[in-house]
Structures are given as structure tokens and as C-alpha cells.
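Morning run. Coffee first, then this:
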Amino acid sequence: MIHSLKTTQFLPISPEEAWSFFSSPENLKEITPEYMRFKILTPLPEKMYPGMILAYKLNPLPFMRLTWVTEITQVKEPEYFVDTQLSGPYSIWHHEHHFKKTEGGVEMTDLLYYKLPMGFLGEWLNYLYIRKKVEMIFSYRKRILDEKFSLIKSR
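And here it is:
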């Protein structure tokens, strides 16, 4: 079964500022919970592009360290980009990042589609733990971004 998650967040910044921040893989660490010990393994180009491969290590669970490899499959600056997992814990991971100019800022929408391996066992783990963990990671990210961009706007 393919699962989905949609989050929307208003940021009081320009579309250019939003694009600059979110299109830089270096900023992933800043919006990822510290307990995940996120570390980028690949050299980073100055600008994101379709076909870009990003490998990183992280701890999705306290006892599990893994390498995750994603590809930036689509880029339309400054409107959206899409990353998909090439190697990692999911059977499918498709993450769309959309940016829409609004009154006083940007509306950022994340659309996530994912599928777990292991059939019924994967579905059971999603129900018991993984879905909540994914939601928690996006909630953490929302809080960090609210704090970060509220501080910038208030300067």
C-alpha cells in the first residue's frame, strides 16, 4: 500500500529566499532532528539540478544507522523540486516540495508518498510506529522553520 502525507506551512519570506534555503542540501541537517545524526556523504554542487544524487547517513531508529541515497528527479525553480529514494529503507519514497507566492510570503507544501517493504509486516510497522515517526519529523521541521524564519522576519 502506498501511504501519503501532505503538510502546508506559511513562511514570511520571499520565494527567492525559500528557494535558496530549501534547494540547498546543506540545510537538510538544520531541519532534521539531531537524534537522527544526519550526515551528507556526497560532495555538494552549488546549485541543485535534475539527476543530482545525494547520499547520506542517518539513524531512523536509535539502534539503526543506514545509508540513504536520493535523486533530485525534477526541478522548476522557484516553484518545486522532487526527490526520490534510490536506496534506503522504503520500497517507494517520492517527496515533492512546492513553493507558492502568497500575500506576505510563501506557502510551502510537501507531498510525500511512501511504501514500506515486507508486505503485511511493513504495513503493521507503519501503523504502529513509522507513520508517527514520519509525522514527528515533519512536525519538528515545521517548528524549526517557524522559529528560523520568524527570527529573520523580525530583524
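The mean pLDDT is 93. Good start to the day.
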